[in-house]
Recover the amino acids of this structure.
């Protein structure tokens, strides 16, 4: 680092600390509010540390019939998990073919697919809904699992990685008479684990956090996903901010845990996406 | 010759007729077909179908009736149409959001990245902290900020009262609504751009800074003559991606301001959603036409990016 000198370190530290306050304080305030009895959530003067700490809000949120938050949690979890698993399987198969097998029109097909990344998703909103409703998939997990599998970004990411794997292993296996599928499954995939983890994380988080599409394709309360459910909660709990903040924190829990364990992969994944094209 | 066709991969074992051969020959097709199946049904077909719908009057349920350019006329140039006013007001709202948000969404993460790149005490913590909100869903973020910005009970107005200011109607009056929407978007999304800048900064060679120092350049000169030119590639990428993302804003105004006051913050995708998916009689054709127009704008921005990136190489 050229910027090893003490003064810029100190300056950076002070600047980052001030900025950090704007990121930390909202989170602390949400935590504090969620632990207060509803009657103390709004108080004057403001209390950062609750007078009485209670988990009642969390309990209340779980037992309410009109906001089945655990059911929403399960919906989100199931949809994101199945979607991610299928995405990894299909994208890695496709990426393997584009990286390692030779067939007529391969490169034209690959770059045409990549070109479709430029198609803005908003253009597909109306026709896709028309299709889903024709298929009878409104209020069905299928509507939130399958359409996203059309995405081509994962193929791009994995192909880059597959191309870099040395050919020797594959050739040795071929001499031993291994089939193409065997090579893909037993040689390429195990070697590609880091890139698969990156793709899995991003696919899971994007699906878990998706809002507009699940909002459109679900209408019944028990088929909502967590983000859509939370948005409905905003109406149900109107000004009951303590309960609302408890629900908000609960919904954020999985991604926070994921982040703590997988920060390294996430940072690497973003840096990778930046050098695409 | 046959071997060549089979992938140019030297087939060392004797070619035996039979099942295995058939499998190997069609292997590429088998490998790409699962994804291609979903791609055709859920991406290629809808894209074309959407353009088709935009020339029709349709409510998703009855038969679509061909209306020619009527949908486009009603939103783009037919000044008598109600949708004309609404569409252009939504267009205005989207542009305002893009113009207000993009500069902050680029500059703030740039400075955060430069700060973190100096490796001060706790730089890993800072990086994680600023990135963390990007993992939350937009709903979570908006709910947090609705509470902070609440006119009567919110934390922000509480502290502003100390400075003698009256309670500010953050979520119900212009121009405050715009500040609120931009603020929560900054808080939510700067992490990704910050990491892209960090990756870019780590690729600027140290000797450039050394040389600048020897030439007597101060910190500010170094920033303008070494850091910024060195970040050209990630900068182009960040600006384009951020612009695209800001054009796609929808949930923040929907949940925080309800598109209000009036139609002040009813952005394009929010309006498309209202026209196409809410109410008793959804106007799919009209919503599709608006999507196509917005889509063309976004596509042109993407093409500019594509041009820039290919020129880079």
């Amino acid at each position: 680092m050229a910027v090893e000198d003490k003064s810029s370190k100190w300056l950076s530290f002070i600047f980052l600390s001030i900025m950090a306050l704007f990121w930390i304080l909202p989170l602390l305030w949400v935590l504090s509010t969620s632990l207060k009895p509803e009657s103390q959530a709004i108080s004057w003067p403001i209390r950062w540390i609750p007078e009485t700490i209670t988990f009642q809000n969390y309990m209340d949120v779980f037992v309410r019939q009109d906001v089945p938050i655990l059911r929403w949690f399960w919906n989100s979890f199931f949809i994101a998990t199945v979607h991610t698993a299928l995405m990894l399987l299909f994208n890695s198969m496709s990426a393997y073919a584009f990286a390692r097998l030779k067939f007529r029109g391969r490169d034209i097909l690959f770059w045409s697919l990549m070109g479709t990344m430029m198609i803005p998703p908003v253009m597909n909103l109306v026709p896709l809904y028309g299709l889903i409703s024709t298929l009878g998939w409104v209020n069905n997990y299928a509507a939130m699992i399958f359409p996203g599998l059309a995405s081509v970004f994962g193929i791009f990411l994995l192909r880059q990685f597959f191309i870099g794997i040395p050919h020797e292993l594959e050739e040795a296996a071929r001499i031993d008479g291994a089939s193409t599928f065997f090579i893909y499954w037993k040689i390429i995939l195990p070697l590609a684990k880091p890139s698969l983890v990156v793709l899995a994380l991003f696919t899971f988080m994007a699906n878990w956090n998706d809002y507009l599409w699940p909002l459109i394709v679900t209408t019944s309360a028990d088929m909502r996903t967590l983000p859509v459910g939370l948005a409905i909660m905003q109406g149900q709990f109107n000004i009951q901010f303590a309960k609302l903040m408890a629900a908000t924190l609960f919904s954020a829990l999985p991604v926070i845990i994921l982040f703590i364990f997988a920060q390294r992969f996430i940072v690497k994944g973003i840096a990778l996406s930046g050098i695409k094209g | 010759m046959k071997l060549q066709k089979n992938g140019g991969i030297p087939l060392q074992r004797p070619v035996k007729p039979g099942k295995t051969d058939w499998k190997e020959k069609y292997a590429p097709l088998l490998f790409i077909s699962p994804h291609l199946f979903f791609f055709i049904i859920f991406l290629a077909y809808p894209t074309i179908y959407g353009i088709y719908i935009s020339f029709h009057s349709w409510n998703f349920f009855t038969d679509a009736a061909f209306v020619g350019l009527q949908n486009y006329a009603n939103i783009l140039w037919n000044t008598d149409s109600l949708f004309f006013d609404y569409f252009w007001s939504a267009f205005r709202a989207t542009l305002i959001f893009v113009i207000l948000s993009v500069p902050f969404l680029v500059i703030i993460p740039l400075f955060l990245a430069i700060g973190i790149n100096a490796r001060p005490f706790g730089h890993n913590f800072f990086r994680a902290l600023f990135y963390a909100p990007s993992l939350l869903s937009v709903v979570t973020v908006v709910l947090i900020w609705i509470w902070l910005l609440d006119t009567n009970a919110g934390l922000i107005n509480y502290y502003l009262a100390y400075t003698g200011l009256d309670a500010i109607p953050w979520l119900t009056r212009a121009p405050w609504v715009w500040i609120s929407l931009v603020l929560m978007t900054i808080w939510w999304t700067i992490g990704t751009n910050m990491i892209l800048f960090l990756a870019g900064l780590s690729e600027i060679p140290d000797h450039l800074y050394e040389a600048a120092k020897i030439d007597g350049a101060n910190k500010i000169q170094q920033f303008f003559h070494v850091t910024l030119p060195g970040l050209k590639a990630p900068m182009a990428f960040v600006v384009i991606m951020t612009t695209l993302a800001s054009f796609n804003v929808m949930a923040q105004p929907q949940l925080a301001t309800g598109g209000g006051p009036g139609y002040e913050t009813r952005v394009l995708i929010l309006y498309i959603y209202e026209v196409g998916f809410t109410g008793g009689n959804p106007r799919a054709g009209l919503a599709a036409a608006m999507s196509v127009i917005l889509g063309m704008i976004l596509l042109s921005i993407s093409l500019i990016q594509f041009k820039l990136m290919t020129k880079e190489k």
Notes: Residues 6-59 of chain A form one domain. Chain A has two domains: 6-59, 65-236.
